[in-house]
């Protein structure tokens, strides 16, 4: 109690933050969970149905197809989006011309600042069969045009590559910052021992980046099951079966069909799966020991 009285002003400043989380995070979360256990009606009573909504979701083939798509697309984004920024950061770290290096950093970071409405529009324009950049190049080379945006074989790769392209610059900056924090005496000692540049990267740079890799991987993993805005912008009926993910399933059930109980149940299944994935990853990577 004396400690609270001593730092009362600090605790007082914490109250608005606590209220914010209670009103805009915890209350909607609790309300959503209660909704998942009810037969939701906009007007009238909302009878308690127990786990019926969860049973409906788990017995819906569309849910399992969405889960399959999510694992393929999310897994591809997670793995490729983990490796690509590391390679890019290592390559940029070797650039000696400061102005050119900063220019490249800026160029690859810019897509991260744009919303998916903008980024999706860019990719739709680039891959369009009617005057798109890629198909225009194919035409000049005497090749047939490819309908990338309606071809099921290209649907998932396009989603994965565009997502990695958008966020690669952000993660690359994080790795570059971590590289600059590495003690330069480690490299000096390695050069004295006769190590070449590749050996320095392998035995010094990469091991020193492991804590940063864990953080980036964990942050990316937390969003792997919650992909929505990109799919919403870039999907179309021709490829919907290949790219519809869990969040589009929730959107369809909740917003389009107004079946809020089923949508809430699906949302909490996503939350539960995300928590399990994060918990397993923390244990496997021994994140808490860093």
UniProtKB/TrEMBL annotation:
The keyword Transmembrane helix applies. It is found in: Cell membrane. It is a multi-pass membrane protein. PROSITE patterns: ABC_TM1. The keyword Membrane applies. It holds the Pfam family BPD_transp_1. SUPFAM superfamilies: MetI-like (SSF161098). Residues 67-281 form the ABC transmembrane type-1 domain. InterPro entries: ABC_transporter_permease, MetI-like, MetI-like_sf. Gene3D superfamilies: MetI-like. Its main location: membrane. The chain crosses the membrane at residues 12-30, 71-92, 104-126, 168-187, 208-228, 255-280. One of its GO terms (cellular component) is plasma membrane. Keywords: Cell membrane, Membrane, Transmembrane, Transmembrane helix, Transport. Belongs to the binding-protein-dependent transport system permease family. This is ABC transporter permease. It comes from Bacillus gobiensis.
């Amino acid at each position: 109690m004396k400690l609270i009285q001593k730092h009362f002003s600090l605790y007082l400043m914490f109250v608005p933050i606590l209220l914010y989380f209670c009103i805009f995070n915890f209350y909607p979360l609790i309300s959503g969970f209660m909704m998942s256990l009810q037969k939701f009606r906009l007007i009238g009573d909302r009878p308690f149905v127990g786990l019926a909504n969860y049973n409906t979701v788990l017995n819906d083939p569309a849910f399992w197809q969405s889960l399959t798509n999510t694992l393929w697309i999310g897994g591809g984004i997670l793995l490729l989006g983990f490796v690509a920024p590391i390679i890019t950061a290592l390559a940029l770290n070797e650039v000696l011309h400061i102005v050119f290096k900063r220019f490249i950093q800026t160029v690859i970071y810019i897509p991260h600042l744009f919303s998916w409405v903008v980024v999706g529009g860019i990719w739709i324009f680039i891959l369009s069969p009617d005057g798109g950049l890629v198909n225009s190049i194919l035409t000049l080379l005497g090749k047939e045009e490819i309908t990338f945006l309606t071809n099921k074989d290209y649907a998932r790769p396009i989603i994965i590559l565009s997502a990695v392209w958008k966020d690669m610059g952000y993660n690359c900056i994080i790795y570059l910052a971590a590289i600059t924090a590495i003690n330069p005496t480690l490299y000096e000692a390695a050069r004295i021992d006769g190590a070449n540049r590749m050996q320095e990267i392998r035995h010094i740079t990469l091991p020193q980046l492991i804590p940063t890799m864990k953080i980036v991987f964990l942050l990316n993993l937390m969003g792997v099951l919650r992909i929505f805005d990109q799919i919403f912008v870039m999907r179309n009926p021709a490829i919907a079966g290949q790219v519809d993910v869990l969040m589009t399933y929730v959107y369809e059930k909740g917003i389009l069909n107004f079946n809020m109980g089923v949508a809430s149940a699906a949302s909490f299944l996503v939350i539960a799966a995300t928590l399990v994935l994060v918990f397993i990853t923390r244990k496997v990577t021994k994140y808490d020991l860093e």
